[in-house]
Design brief:
- By secondary structure, the chain is an alpha/beta fold.
- It is globular.
- It has one domain: Alanine racemase (TIM Barrel, Alpha-Beta Barrel), CATH 3.20.20.
- The chain starts with a helix and ends in a 7-residue tail after the last helix.
- The longest helix has 21 residues.
Length: about 220
């Protein structure tokens, strides 16, 4: 199956209101070009340097999504062009994004990453921290725009557990949406669980291996 064939199959399972992010981390430029030719404009990377290199090499109408854990000292490299930063997991990081966005005379859209998984390895804010940032901090950060939430469910075969974790994220998303007109994106769901995520209200899914295959290439 080609990348284009994979995309055709996946897009048939995704409603029109849900945005597909093609997770292209570790994949060569040629794979991204094939996905681009098939109509994909939203690509997700988890390493800033790799995303910067691909940004330089590929068409400028691509929307770049930073989906990995972000170190504050690396924000400056992607600040000129990144479209959406999914994994904002601390107030410190949010402030650094605001600082670098101001230097580039632009407003950068971000999602707050809420911790929903029953795993120690995942990053994220808890529900109260998310609400506190939204109520007390965002008005003081004019160069960032919080447009929604992102979360990753536990890595498990227990669909009820995954569904309940997505439900908890959707609940906080609905609360924030009722109090802030900028909140519109709920990024949850990956190759293994995106259909469940969509059923639970996701508006953006991050799919990599189902598009590009499992093998990791060296860039």
């Amino acid at each position: 199956m080609s990348i284009q064939d994979n995309l055709i199959q996946i897009e048939q399972t995704i409603p029109k209101h849900v945005t597909l992010i093609a997770v292209s981390k570790t994949k060569p430029i040629s794979d991204l070009e094939e996905a681009y030719a098939a109509g994909i404009r939203d690509f997700g990377e988890n390493k800033i340097q790799e995303m910067c290199d691909k940004y330089e090499a590929l068409p400028k109408d691509i929307r770049w999504h930073m989906i990995g854990h972000v170190q504050t000292n690396k924000v400056k490299y992607m600040a000129p062009f990144v479209d959406l930063i999914h994994g904002v997991d601390s107030l410190k990081l949010l402030k650094e994004i605001n600082k670098q966005a101001e230097k580039n005379n632009r407003v950068i859209k971000v999602l707050l990453q809420q911790f929903i998984a029953d795993e120690e390895t995942k990053f994220g804010l808890d529900e109260n921290e998310v609400r506190q940032i939204m109520s007390d901090e965002v008005d003081n950060l004019p160069y960032v725009q919080v447009v929604g939430l992102m979360g990753m469910a536990s890595f498990t075969d227990d669909e009820n557990k995954i569904r309940n974790e997505f439900k908890s994220l959707k609940s906080n998303f609905d609360f924030l949406k009722s109090t802030n007109e900028n909140i519109s994106i709920l990024s949850m769901g990956m190759s293994g669980d995106y259909k469940t995520a969509i059923e639970e209200g996701s508006t953006m899914v991050r799919i990599g291996s189902s598009i590009f295959g499992h093998r990791n290439y060296s860039i």
